[in-house]
Amino acid sequence: MELNPGVSTEEPPSWDELYNVNLVPSELFLKFRKEIEGFRLGVNLEFYNAPLNDFQTKLVLKPLSSERRWKFIYEPIHHDVRIVSKKIPLTKFVNLQVGVGHSFSLGATGWKWKLTSCLGGDNVSRIRNKTSVGLCDGVDLRFGWRADYVLPEITGALGTDEPLFNMESGRLEASLDRVEAIFTHKDE
Question: Cα-flanking dihedrals φ and ψ of residue 18, to 5°?
Answer without folding.
Answer: -90, -25
